[in-house]
Amino acid sequence: MDEILEVLEKDARISPQELARLLRRQPEQVKKAVKGFEKQGIIVGYKTIINRELLQDNNNFVSALIEVRVTPQKDVGFDKIAERIYSFPEVKSCYLLSGTYDLLILIEGRSIHTVSDFVAEKLASLEHVRRTTTHFLLKRYKEDGVILKRKRENKRIAISY
Amino acid sequence: MKKSLSKTVQELQPSGIREFFDLVLGMKDVISLGVGEPDFTTPWVIREAGIYALEQGFTSYTSNKGLYKLRLGISRYLNSRFNLKYNPEEEILITTGVSEAMDLALRAVVNPGDEVIIPLPCYVAYGPLTILAGGLPRYIKTQLRQGFKLKPEDLERAITKRTKAVILNYPGNPTGVSYTNKELADFKRIILKHKILCITDEIYGDLSYDFAHIPFASLSGAGQFSLYLNGFSKAYAMTGWRIGYACGCKDVISAMTKIHQYTMLCAPIMSQLAAYEALVSGKKAMDEMKREYQRRREYVYEELKRIGFEMVKPQGAFYFFISTKNTGLAGLNFARKLLKEQNVAVVPGDAFGSDYKDFVRLSYCADLDKLKEAIARIEKFLRRKQ
Ligand SMILES: Cc1ncc(COP(=O)(O)O)c(C=O)c1O
């Protein structure tokens, strides 16, 4: 993996100038490389990781993981049905898995009701969807490689040889 | 009370820096570029092994030399990485950090009045440890304009009939300067000719950025005249675990073990098990930290250059040793004022040799955001001064 990606994956806010300096490359070269990654779809976006547990209005927010069993279709396999599912904006992540079910989706909504309505009305009623199992998410510990518990500041002594 | 203290101890380096250290420790919200240890926490795989060791009840002494499996692991690591061959039975000793290893080494080889050559600027412990062992430090200054590198002719000139050993630390604290194969070969020629021991502190060996690190002991014919010291503190971010090791000829290692068995008995068993895990599965995390240091080095170097500091671009470790001459302030004053006015801590150069009053050591063991902020504050500090 290009070191540009290693740095950006940790901190997307870094500017091309800074990135260039860190990696001892030319800013123009870095900009071009980043553009290239974007074009190829290797970099698909830049976003902020939010710890919702700490938000005031967290009461209006629930997530659920839903296992979905589907009937694969001729020629297109799972892709077509996956596309119909992940196109709903409520679906935040969607994966095809091996094992006892086929698709795992993460959905977010304002309440248990919105989520269950979505499952009942939108998801379960889709042609080819055979069965769903909904797991409501109780607590997040780690999100995209970031531990959400606030770290205690490490008590390294401020000066040493 | 004073009368009852040993003369040797009373005469040990009365450090003017101590006061400054106390000043730093008494302040809050300091951005510290004054630390000599990684800002990273020990990688989880390694911590996990330490926790597991405790869970399993590994709370006893080990053999004086250290756990055999750790010695074997070190022997294999040195062999595969540097083609260095040490027998884990009798040529490797596990110590509580390189600190202890250096102490043992000097006490094992120095007779009263023997001289030990120490290039400056250097890590603070070498001089005092030499004195405590009954030896006389024979310092060789190196200059900024020679890249803080020891010159072979200066080494040769410093050797007398009483010279017992020379201490080489590379990549070095506080300069980050390291030596290439060719430079080491020049030292080897002299060391072999005069038959002195070369004690190398290679604790930053895994943090070498511009060229492959080469242990002095791996040079052909050097083995017999070298004592290789290394440890887990820096590269694996394990300073608090206190594990180092010494590798060398059987007779030196066994002499060191003799002292070690009385003074330390053994290194902590849970730390030894964690260190073993570091060898087995810590490489990936270590490489990641190394790349991070390397990126910071590039960043800080360009920034310090832009601000106008004179320095050598370090080839390893995680320090910059920069001249404060252009600022019109001596190192200690620079450090004191920077701390008071901008809450940024650096270490005055005097700490590493009395001739380095016009320097400060700045370590980049802080994340990029902190480094940026610290550099901005240093700039502000200099602008205000004018
Ligand atoms: C050059 C050098 N040697 C030895 C040490 C001490 O290492 P250890 O933690 O292994 O005792 C340090 C720590 O700052 C160092 O910089």
Account of the 3D structure:
Chain A is α+β, with helices and mostly antiparallel strands. Chain A has two domains: 3-40, no CATH class; 52-139, Alpha-Beta Plaits (2-Layer Sandwich). Helices cover 31% and strands 21% of the residues of chain A. Chain A contains five helices and six strands. In chain A, the strands form two sheets. A four-stranded antiparallel β-sheet of chain A has the order 2-3-1-4. Chain A has a two-stranded antiparallel sheet with strand order 5-6. With 386 residues, chain B is α/β, with parallel strands linked by helices. Chain B has two domains: 2-42 and 284-385, Alpha-Beta Complex (Aspartate Aminotransferase, domain 1); 44-281, Type I PLP-dependent aspartate aminotransferase-like (Major domain) (Aspartate Aminotransferase, domain 2, 3-Layer(aba) Sandwich). Chain B is built from 13 helices and 13 strands. Chain B has helices at residues 7-11, 17-25, 44-55, 68-82, 97-109, 126-132, 152-158, 181-194, 250-263, 269-281, 283-307, 331-342, 368-385; strands at 31-32, 92-95, 115-120, 136-141, 163-169, 197-201, 226-231, 244-247, 310-311, 319-323, 344-345, 347-348, 359-363. Chain B has a seven-stranded mixed β-sheet with strand order 2-8-7-6-5-3-4, sandwiched between helices. In chain B, helix 5 (97-109) packs across helix 9 (250-263), helix 11 (283-307) packs parallel to helix 13 (368-385) and helix 12 packs across helix 13 (368-385). The longest helix of chain B has 25 residues, at 283-307. The N and C termini of chain B lie far apart (48 Å). The chains are: A alpha+beta (161), B alpha/beta (386). At the A-B interface, helix 1 and helix 2 of A face helix 2 and helix 11 of B. The structure holds pyridoxal-5'-phosphate. Residues 36, 97-99, 123, 169, 173, 201, 203, 231, 233, 239, 244 of chain B line the site of pyridoxal-5'-phosphate. Pyridoxal-5'-phosphate binds next to helix 5 of chain B.
